[in-house]
Design goal:
It comes from Waterburya agarophytonicola KI4. Residues 58-182 form the TNase-like domain. By secondary structure, this protein is an alpha+beta fold. It has a single domain (32-197), classed as Beta Barrel (OB fold (Dihydrolipoamide Acetyltransferase, E2P)), CATH 2.40.50.90. It has helices at 2-42, 90-102, 139-145, 162-174, 187-197, and strands spanning 49-53, 63-68, 71-77, 80-81, 107-115, 121-128, 136-138, 150-151. Strands 1-2-3-6-5 form a five-stranded mixed beta barrel. Helix 1 packs antiparallel against helix 4 and helix 3 packs parallel to helix 4. Mean pLDDT is 83; it is low at 2-20 and 40-45.
């Protein structure tokens, strides 16, 4: 009986170690992918432009406005879909995005990808982190990895970080973070249901 317990405990421990190693490997893959994306973005002809997030413009977890001089853009974060404000975790998602942006004091690198049907600039976004601004937070993957947004696969093909979004979502799902902790309705399904009930 003691030997059986020992074997079961050993099997459980080995399983947990393998899961942990798998999660670390996924994080390493994401980090390597983000570094490659950064090099494509900042060291090629199509580098990301420096903007400021417009105060009070972070509407939800995937939309915001940026300004530079007299220019203003409404941004939709490429390849993600965050819960709507009226959904569970909608406010938390918006507040998490605000907290990430606050780490760069409102400064943001914007790589425009395309314009969507609502005339928003779909973009990859990076926050340079204080105090030296040399480190970066890639907002697209950070929101998904924390469980505050889904990888919006049907709209991520043109994103520089499309593959990384898949890995980030796997981490959030495996760790049951945010939208993966419970039975949450995906925002695109929620919007579709709202359209037909109104």
């Amino acid at each position: 009986m003691a030997m059986k317990r020992l074997l079961n405990s050993s099997s459980l421990l080995i399983g947990l170690i393998l899961v942990f190693i798998g999660i670390l490997d996924n994080r390493e893959t994401i980090n390597n992918g983000i570094e490659k994306a950064l090099s494509r973005v900042f060291f090629k002809d199509n580098y990301a432009d420096l903007w400021q997030v417009k105060p009070g413009s972070i509407y939800d977890g995937d939309t915001l406005r940026v300004v530079r001089g007299n220019e203003e853009l409404k941004i939709r974060i490429c390849g993600i879909d965050a819960p709507e404000l009226k959904q569970p975790l909608g406010i938390e998602s918006r507040d998490y995005l605000r907290s990430l942006i606050a780490q760069g004091n409102g400064t943001i690198h914007v790589l425009p990808i395309e314009t969507d049907r609502y005339d928003r600039t779909v973009a990859e976004l990076w926050i340079p982190i204080k105090p030296d601004y040399e480190a970066q937070i890639h907002l697209n993957t950070a929101m998904v990895e924390a469980g505050y947004a889904y990888h919006y696969q049907q709209y991520s093909d043109s994103c520089v970080s499309a593959e990384n979004l898949g890995w980030a979502e796997k981490i959030a799902r495996d760790e049951k973070l945010g939208v993966w902790n419970g039975n949450h309705q995906k925002p695109w399904k929620w919007r579709s249901a709202k359209k037909y009930t109104n």
